[in-house]
Amino acid sequence: MKTLTVACIQQKMRLPQTLEEYREDLRRFLRAAENKRARLVVFPELAGVMVIPPLLGGFQANLLKRADLARRRQTSLWQKFSGGVSGALAGWLNSDFRQMTGALLTTQSDMVWEAYDEVFGGLAQEFDVTLVAPSAYLPDPLDGVLRNLAVVYGPGGERLGYQAKRVLHPEDEDLAQPGHEWNVIPTPVGRIGLMLGGDLLYPEVGRLLAYQGAELLIAQGAATERVLFEKLRAGILARMQDNQLFAAISFLVGHNEFSRRQRDPFVGRSSVLAPQELTPRASGILVESSNFRSESVLSAVWDFEKLAELWETSDTPVRSQLPLDAVGPALAQLYNKMNQLPEGSEALLAVPEVQEPETKEHPVEMEEKVTTPNRTNSTLSLDDLPVLSSVTSYWGDASDSEIKASLPAHVPVSLTPESDDWEYDETWESDELQELSGPEAEAEEGMPAQSEDPETVAAKQAGESQAENEESEEETQEMDALLAPGAEDDRDQTG
After folding, report:
1. What CA–CA distances, in Å, run from 424 to 179, 253, 273, 434, 462?
2. How far apart are CA 234 and CA 203, in angstroms?
3. On the chain, which terminus has fewer CB atoms closer than 10 Å, C or N?
4. Which residues of the chain have pLDDT under 50?
5. Are 301 and 5 in contact (CB under 8 A)?
6. Rounded to the nearest 10 degrees, how much is the dihedral formed by the CA atoms of 251, 257, 262, 268?
7. Are 155 and 182 in contact (CB under 8 A)?
8. What is the pLDDT of residue 367?
9. pLDDT value of position 419
10. Secondary structure letter of residue 185 according to DSSP
11. What pLDDT is attached to residue 186?
């Protein structure tokens, strides 16, 4: 296979009433991917949990489902009103979807597995694609233990393999046990190395999969904090470049009814990646979602011939240049030592306490005592501060060449300091389904932050937010028309 078109799905968490409703919601994404002629489709972490609400019965579960229905865009006024009342009543009764999920998994995990397998295996066969299904809390086929795992299905609907999350997030710990190992999954589109959540933060995991023959690195994420999303994004970029492989990461977004702790919305920007040498502006990104909380379908083409050529011609052949004869034994010895420690790597990496040298106390004469101003009742001036060292200023109005000429040879100085502060656009949320194709639809990079008056910034952000909402409304109407059941199959839109 010379090229492969991949589709990466950014999906919202919902509470569907029936499995058929959930299946039809998934078809929206798969139809868009089909229009892009995608042969590989990737869904996000924990989106597979949405097979559980249709299996839940009872008054409180129905309240939560009605409240979720009211949050959707295409609902009637009555549904919005009744959903609002249901949500208020569910809050008063302390109805908790996570607790209901845990109870169902404890008693009927096999039923959850059957529903998951039926939905995603059937869709893979229906659309004739290799499908990396979203992860969910499911019984491990080997030992029946509940784990956060994702299954890969072939175009015929058959299970090709699965991967369980090994490094659990605190959100996983009460519902799942960690997996055992990472293995490459052979598929018709290539050998897939699958990483869930925090697994991709460790260089060893990506290198292990690459050495097992992985051709594609696929990651799934679910982050309720911006900082966690940024870490996962940085992690997949590093694993991709570490091993010079194609990669993609899919994020769960939107309203959160499932978290264990504070239920902030899921955020993320899904992306399709390639080695920096093969991407615009050497960013490593072929296409990336432009929004943190809206659904989207991203697509890009991976060229395996160019990748093979890169391995041969790159000035940094990281796949072949690692001196394993020197690094291998050292790493093996280090990991073995860490494994034998009672507290794992933390004991090995603990910083030793620094003992201060003993000093003899000498009486201080009254006239030698130094008085300092009372910090609670007065403000320190520069003259009050103790002098730690002398500081010489080399900065003036002279030109750069004059400044450099006046400096001693051993004094390094940067005459053009750069700021590490970056400003990101405010996120906005909509129900639109965006379709982005790389590389021309790549999201714009952040620009250096500028110092502005707070009132000016607030007015500017308000104007941008209004413009974005108007644009979102127009795009949503267009997308609803495109994704309507009666629309033509050959429709296509590039965001």
Report:
1. 36, 18, 20, 20, 15
2. 12
3. N
4. 344, 364-373, 375-378, 380, 382, 385, 387-398, 403, 410-429, 440-452, 488-495
5. yes
6. 10
7. no
8. 46
9. 40
10. E
11. 97
Determine contact, residues 208/230, Cβ cutoff 8 Å. no
The enclosing H or E element of 9 equals strand 3-12
Predicted pLDDT of residue 461: 59
Write down the pLDDT at residue 481. 57
| Alpha-carbon Rg for the chain in angstroms | 28
Q: Give the separation between CA 103 and CA 144, rounded to whole angstroms.
A: 16
Q: Give the Cα separation of 296 and 211 in Å (integer).
A: 32
DSSP type of residue 382? G
Distance CA(123)–CA(342), nearest Å, equals 47
- Evaluate whether 242 touches 318 at the Cβ level (below 8 Å): yes
Tokens 């909380």, residue? 293
CA-based angle 156:160:161, to the nearest 5?
150
Torsion, CA 325, CA 330, CA 333, CA 334, rounded to 10: -150
Walk me through the domains of the chain, giving residue ranges and CATH numbers: 11-320 (3.60.110.10)
pLDDT on residue 262: 65
* Three-state secondary structure call for residue 255: coil
For 399, what's the count of Cα atoms within 13 Å in the CB-facing half-sphere?
Answer: 2
Query: How many Å apart are CA 269 and CA 245, to the nearest integer?
Result: 20
The CB density around residue 164, as the number of other CB atoms within 10 Å, is: 25
Host H or E run for residue 109:
helix 97-127
- Structure tokens, 135: 């992860």
Residue-wise pLDDT for 278-290, tens only, equals 998 899 999 999 8
With tokens 């997949």, the residue in question is 236
Q: Which residues pair with 136 in a beta bridge?
A: 149
CB neighbour list of residue 341: distance below 8 Å, 6 or more residues apart = 347, 348
The C-alpha angle with vertex 449 and arms to 252 and 451, in degrees rounded to 5, equals: 135
Closest Cα to residue 45, out of 182, 197, 172? Answer: 197
pLDDT at 48: 95
pLDDT on residue 360: 52
DSSP 422: E
**For the chain, what is the total number of helices (H) and then of strands (E)?**
12, 16
List % helix, strand, coil for the chain (3-state, nearest 5).
40, 20, 40
Q: Which residues on neighbouring strands pair with residue 297, listed in sequence order?
A: 9, 435
Query: Alpha carbon of 280 to those of 247, 277, 290: distances in Å?
Result: 16, 8, 16
Name the DSSP class of 267. B
